[in-house]
Design brief:
The structure holds 2 protein chains of 2 kinds.
Chain A lengths: L8 H6 L4 H31 L27 H37 L7 H20 L29 H29 L12 H32 L18 H35 L6 H15 L14 H13 L1 H15 L8 H24 L1 H7 L3 H31 L5 H27 L19 H31 L59
Chain B lengths: L19 H30 L12 H26 L3 H31 L8 H32 L9 H26 L1
Helix pairs in contact in B: 1-4, 1-5, 2-3, 2-5, 3-4, 4-5
The chains are: A mainly alpha, B mainly alpha.
């Protein structure tokens, strides 16, 4: 299966068909946008605490917003709208999607199931370059005279339509970019599902797959089912923006009767709610596997965890209405959505219990990936529990559109998914690049992220409970927010520390790539198949197709003598 | 990557003997079907909340489009014949029936363009009403699928003219057939929802 012929630079690193190289390309893209979107968060925090003051030099105040209508270097209200819109869009679709699904989906799936590559390598390459094109379109929208999209990451009409909405073509570019990104995701989904169905090594049953692969598999299924729905919605939104239709416009400004803005909300959330599971399922899988590796114990309730993840996958498609309780939904429908949403807490709790079971009496090793994996348990626990308040109609009507929702969302997405992604980066970096990420810088990165992150997002929920609306430009304008403005400034300081530590991570990433300690073949003593291949991983991955005999978490088996783990393809010594 | 075709299909695979390409196409069809579902349901939702909606046949020419529907069903038949021919090793038959199918698709598109032209000169445009918008978006989305199908057939026809397919190697023709039958089937839904109901 190995390709022995010499490949040119272009076919090896740029238009590569190798899933490992494509995974790395997605990783670079994701990290670039992570820093880009993170920097926007810093600007948002600056504006919230130091409203209408010029940016300092360390937020690039000498370069940004020089032609701002409210004064050089000052973020005005319109620019602020663009910032939170693009921060959300970029972090969700351009940072954590490429890192978790693009990078680790590509890198891990074939290696973990014992396959030589993805089933459709060309489609895989096209998928990355479609995403790249989407990124270019998105970045070009900043060059438009009125700036980029400013209707919020959800882009609800009428904000996102020309009739009564925000002027400029930014929304059009946003819609185009998102359509392209969705196309890329769909190509990936076809590839991942077919690969997992078809290319599992002999003996690799579905219930012997590592939970990372399970998470990515279920994510791909959700992608395949729900991205097409948002594609239909985006087509309609695009036509409203460029072709003069008014499908999503209603009220006195509409010149064509019969449009319906709520239609977009439904279409968006039919996709949008599964989307949060699309993002978090790989993180759950990664955390489940990592806890087992670093507790040196088989994952507790492995099958149950996998089945719970399947249950959540199924339920996630029927709960979108809980985003729309305040749209005048009939109470019966609202209660149904509430009931279905609360049902999700049952499988979530079960596999949360399984995580605790994995740790129970384990020989815990606190390496950097483990620190991040364990912190996911904390942040996801908080995110999940606060989700109950949003899912319950009575409390949600009060909390809707406040910073409580923003805090909850950041606990589940920015904290749980991103920390799952960080755990994955620290864990698989040695296998991807052949060198270790520096653990000292890694530990500083972890504590420097974990503590400020909680200070920011927990206080967001407090602010939200005090009534802070999610999109206000200047909180000091409001009498009822006066008592919590000190908290606002405290969050901003914490956010800046959080941001600064991510620069350290980026530095560590690049530094370790060049100067890091050369990695061993299996530095963590992990049992899954990707750790049985050599450095650098050859094109075609395995020299011989592995024969899988064990489950993914064979640690501390009593009959093992000289090591405490057993690779999936390694028979038990007799 | 031809190397993948040599990969053995795992024992007791629940998807039987389907090739990987076929599985991929089935997945694509599910995805594509869901995007049609999105558009059709969005159209239905707009119709439900619209103040008025023209009756069936009031503005649209049902007999003409019924002929078009019949034509598309016929091309599905010729597509089956094409696959049947190459499964027997009949390369000339494959090319003949693929050509018929492609011609049918082109005529379908021609009639649709004629229909559009007729509407446009009568000021029935994309942004005339919600009804016209739903009509154009749904039928045009389908028309683009027929166009892609015609291009896809042209590619397979080109490969067929190079003698690439034989009685042992007709997987690509079958996968093409899946896509074409899907485009045909989804048209019956579009025709029913947009024209007849």
């Amino acid at each position: 299966m190995s390709n022995s012929h010499e490949q040119s630079f272009w076919s090896k690193y740029i238009f590569s068909l190798d899933h490992k190289v494509i995974g790395k390309q997605f990783l670079w893209l994701g990290i670039f946008f992570l820093l880009f979107g993170g920097f926007q968060a810093m600007l948002i925090r600056w504006s919230l605490s130091n409203n209408m003051e010029p940016l300092p030099w360390w937020l690039l105040g000498d370069f940004l917003y020089q032609s701002s209508p409210v004064g050089a270097g000052i973020i005005g209200p319109d620019a602020y709208n663009q910032l939170f819109t693009m921060h959300g869009t970029i972090m969700i679709f351009w940072a954590i999607t490429p890192i978790l699904i693009g990078a680790f989906g590509n890198f891990c799936i074939p290696l973990q199931i014992g396959a030589p590559d993805m089933v459709f390598p060309k489609l895989n390459m096209i998928s990355f370059w479609t995403m790249f094109l989407a990124s270019v379109v998105l970045l070009f929208s900043y060059l438009l005279p009125e700036g980029t999209a400013a209707g919020g990451w959800t882009s609800y009409p009428p904000l996102s339509t020309p009739v009564g909405g925000i002027p400029g073509q930014g929304q059009t570019m946003w819609t185009l970019a998102l359509t392209l990104a969705g196309t890329s995701t769909l190509m990936g989904a076809i590839n991942y599902i077919t690969t997992i169905v078809r290319l599992r090594a002999p003996g690799m049953d579905y219930f012997k797959m590592p939970l990372t692969t399970w998470g990515l598999f279920l994510t791909s299924i959700l992608n395949a089912l729900f991205v097409p729905i948002i594609a239909a919605g985006l087509i309609i939104l695009l036509l409203d923006n460029i072709a003069g239709t008014q499908f999503l416009v209603a009220g006195s400004k509409a010149t064509i009767p019969g449009g319906d803005p709520l239609l977009y909300q439904h279409v968006f959330w039919i996709f949008g709610h599964p989307e949060v599971y699309i993002l978090i399922l790989p993180a759950w899988g990664i955390v489940s596997d990592l806890l087992s590796v670093f507790a040196r114990k088989p994952a507790f309730g492995y099958k149950v965890t996998a089945i719970c993840m399947c249950t959540i996958t199924a339920l996630s498609g029927v709960v979108w209405g809980h985003h729309m309780y305040t749209t005048g939904m009939s109470p019966l429908l609202g209660k149904t959505f509430m009931f279905l949403t609360l049902l999700i807490s049952i499988p979530s709790s079960i596999f949360f219990l399984n995580w605790l079971g994995t740790l129970w009496k384990g020989a815990l090793k606190f390496d950097v990936p483990m620190l991040f994996a364990m912190s996911v348990m904390w942040v996801f626990g908080l995110g999940g529990l606060t989700g109950l308040y949003n899912a319950t109609i009575t409390s949600d009507i009060y909390l809707h559109d406040t910073y409580f929702v923003v805090g909850h969302f950041h606990y589940t997405m920015a904290a749980s998914v991103l920390f799952g992604g960080f755990a994955a980066i620290y864990f698989w970096f040695p296998k991807m690049f052949g060198r270790d990420l520096d653990p000292t810088m890694g530990k500083i990165h972890f504590w420097g992220s974990f503590i400020p992150l909680n200070l920011v997002f927990f206080n967001m929920m407090v602010m939200g409970y005090a009534g802070h609306h999610r999109r206000i430009f200047d909180p000091s304008e409001f009498e009822f927010l006066k008592p919590v403005l000190g908290l606002n400034d405290f969050m901003t300081t914490s956010a800046f520390i959080l941001g600064a530590v991510q620069v350290l991570f980026a530095f560590n990433f690049v530094w370790s790539l060049v100067k890091g300690k050369l990695a061993e073949k299996n530095p963590w003593g992990a049992a899954t198949l990707e750790w049985t291949v050599d450095h650098p991983i050859p094109h075609g991955n395995f020299s011989a197709t592995p024969q899988v005999v064990n489950g993914p978490h064979e640690y501390s088996h009593p009959s093992l003598k000289d090591k405490d783990w057993l690779a999936q393809s390694e028979p038990l010594p007799s | 990557m031809n190397q993948n075709q040599a990969l053995p299909i795992p024992a007791n695979d629940p998807f039987g003997k389907a090739t990987t390409g076929k599985l991929g196409m089935w997945l694509f069809i599910i995805i594509d079907g869901l995007s049609f579902a999105g558009l059709l349901i969005a159209g239905a939702a707009l119709r439900a909340s619209a103040p008025s909606w023209p009756a069936a046949g009031e503005l649209l020419n049902i007999p003409l489009t019924a002929f078009n529907t019949f034509l598309l069903i016929c091309t599905s038949f010729t597509m089956v014949m094409a696959l049947n021919a190459i499964q027997k090793g009949d390369q000339a038959g494959l090319k003949k029936y693929l050509t018929y199918t492609m011609a049918g698709g082109l005529i379908f598109l021609g009639i649709q363009v004629y229909e559009y032209y007729h509407f446009i000169v009568n000021d029935f445009l994309l942004n005339t009403s919600i009804y016209s918008g739903v009509f154009y978006v749904t039928t045009c989305f389908h028309g683009l699928h027929v166009l892609s199908g015609v291009i896809y057939i042209a590619c397979i026809l080109y490969a067929a003219s190079k003698g690439r397919y034989s009685a042992d190697n007709w997987d690509h023709v079958e996968i093409l057939g899946l896509f074409w039958h899907f485009v045909d089937l989804v048209w019956i839904l579009v025709f029913t929802v947009i024209y007849l109901i």
